[in-house]
Amino acid sequence: MLRKEQNDLLTQTGPATPMGDMFRCYWIPALLAEELPANDCPPVRIKLLSERLLAFRDSEGRYGLIDEFCAHRGVSLWFGRNEKGGLRCPYHGWKYDHTGQCIEVPSEPKESGFCNKIKLKSYPLIKIGDILWTYMGPADKEPPHPEWEFALVPPEQTFTSKRWQESNWLQAMEGGIDSSHVSFLHSGSLNSDPLFKGARGNKYNMADSKPFFEVTDNEGGLFIGARRNAEEGHYYWRVTPWVMPSFTMVPPRGNHPVHGHFWIPIDDENCWAWSFDYHPVRALTPEERQAMLDGKGIHVTYVPGTFRPAANKDNDYLMDREAQRLGVTYSGVEGIAMQDASLQESMGPIVDRTKENLVSTDNGIIMARHRLLKAVRAFKDKGITPPGVDPAHHRVRSAAVVLPVDQSYIDAAAEALTVIEGKAPASV
Amino acid sequence: MQLGLSESARATTAEEARFRIGYPNSRPRKSRIIALDSDSVAALKSLVDQASDGAHFLRYIEPKGATNSLKMLSVDAILEDIDGKRTNLVDEIADADVIVMVTSAGASAEAAEVIGNACFVRSKMTTGLVLNSASVPSEQLKRTLTTMRPFAAMLVVSTGAEYVSEMLSALRV
Description:
The complex is a heterodimer.
Chain A: H1 4-11, H2 18-23, E1 27-32, E2 44-48, E3 51-57, E4 63-67, E5 81-83, E6 86-88, E7 95-96, E8 102-104, E9 122-123, E10 125-128, E11 131-135, H3 149-152, E12 158-165, H4 169-176, H5 182-185, H6 200-207, E13 212-217, E14 221-229, E15 234-243, E16 247-249, E17 258-267, E18 270-278, H7 286-293, H8 321-326, H9 336-346, H10 363-382, E19 399-404, H11 409-412
Antiparallel strand pairs in A: 1-11, 2-3, 3-4, 4-9, 5-6, 6-7, 7-8, 10-11, 12-18, 13-14, 14-15, 15-16, 15-19, 16-17, 17-18
Chain B: H1 7-11, H2 14-17, E1 31-35, H3 38-45, E2 55-63, E3 77-81, E4 86-88, H4 89-93, E5 98-104, H5 111-121, E6 126-131, H6 138-148, E7 154-158, H7 162-170
Parallel strand pairs in B: 1-2, 1-5, 5-6, 6-7
Antiparallel strand pairs in B: 2-3, 3-4
Keywords (chain A): 2Fe-2S, Dioxygenase, Iron, Iron-sulfur, Metal-binding, Oxidoreductase
Protein name (chain A): Phenylpropionate dioxygenase-like ring-hydroxylating dioxygenase large terminal subunit
Domain Rieske (chain A): 27-134
């Protein structure tokens, strides 16, 4: 459990909140690059960390992420005309460039220089991989660009999607480091989902529903190892890295692509669940890519024209009690992503952690909260840069390995947990 | 009540959250936190005042002889509480809900085997907490982990002693 003040501290990420300030130390995923597919394409409204913003791509391909509202009368610039090197408000013609600088106020004499005095708040927006990333902190503290492996491999080796989750970011992220739920909630999917089935490791997963856990601190966050019995004298280890504040990777299965998530606050009651699949050494097959587009694995299908999952709270997640009864799905909800999201959303927009009863197998979650609390206090009180900002912390991998019982995963699989270009992931 | 919403949509609004039942949903837990080495004793002593009545802070002293029924396993030990009073492991864990073993990286953790076995035969969950420090060579940490691993359902390696209190608080201990 957390005390109320601790829960508030971790779950509130708006401007001028301690956790919000800490989130603003990082480059975070803002949009899929495909949302701004061409120069002068329509702008996109986006809310991040409780700030309403507008993203656009100007005539020269420069990306802008600016305050959504025109400085003149507060009109949403989503209605704007994206043309000739800027975004023009359709109300009175005020025009802004990709930095938010006003470059035209038609009603004022050009020579007056009035427009130079108008500038909307803006943040950098850069493309790395399939994602447009932003940094929302002070300009003089901008960190080096992110170096997550999934975003750096060639385009044919990676796939990223995002979905709107109607809950606070923390309860979503905690699901990503809670390895013990897999044997229950996702048990129906291990042998049927095209992006999971067929791996030898699945056999160990299904044979041992009470894994032992080992949680280890590291510089950027944690490694959470779940061990199950394998052949005589050996353990099957699944190791999940968590990098602060909200990056997780799922241990791989067989030669399937490796997947993981970012959990980014939209506001305190909603977040973006970013989901990626990639393979470090080979292109995704057409079948794998199609499965991802079809919402298999950790991806979803959508309400057309939105990033809202087709199964959502408004249709009771298309709950199928017969599938639940027959064990086709454990919870009655189809698909790994929505099995997680449905339960996390059911907790309410911000779960009241004063009422929970954690057990020892929740130590991964307890340790992650501890690290976040420690980092946010150190940042707030002493200005110490939090873990996970340094790109060196991004070069981690998940791993699934079988090891002799006397070996520690943190030593025996150290190389497997580090990005080594051209080296296949450690998987069973 | 907002009309037109599905049951899930209605039930998960912040407005509905106000109607969640406010009664307690668990009874106080009894816990035994056992230091396996002297550095861990020091870490636990600082927590005694913060802990609930159900928590006993103990120190491992030595194993007791094997029983007739379980000749191969040592499943009892002598412990000592913070005031120096001696007690038996089996008596301490009999009604405990949570058993936490705390040791320092590099310390000998053979006591974990005795405690782990005693808990196993009584179907008690064990958590092992290893307090690591940058000055401890990784080989020594590895040795401690290897000793503890078979006897702890959850093993945590923490670089800060402050995690002990954080974990106990999170577990309502």
